[in-house]
Write the structure tokens for this entry.
Amino acid sequence: MILTITLILAFLVAVNFLLLFFSCNKITREKPVRKPKIIKGNNPKVIANQLPSRQLAATGS
């Protein structure tokens, strides 16, 4: 009885690893590296993405 359960579990684990191995996506696509655009001008404006220290963002909770 214990031998049967052990064999069934070992078989299921082996099938699981085979499915995992053959279901992996083998295609690796490299995305082209985009260089940042440089804005040339006399006085470029600095845009701050951070909130002021006293203002907090809404969390919705």
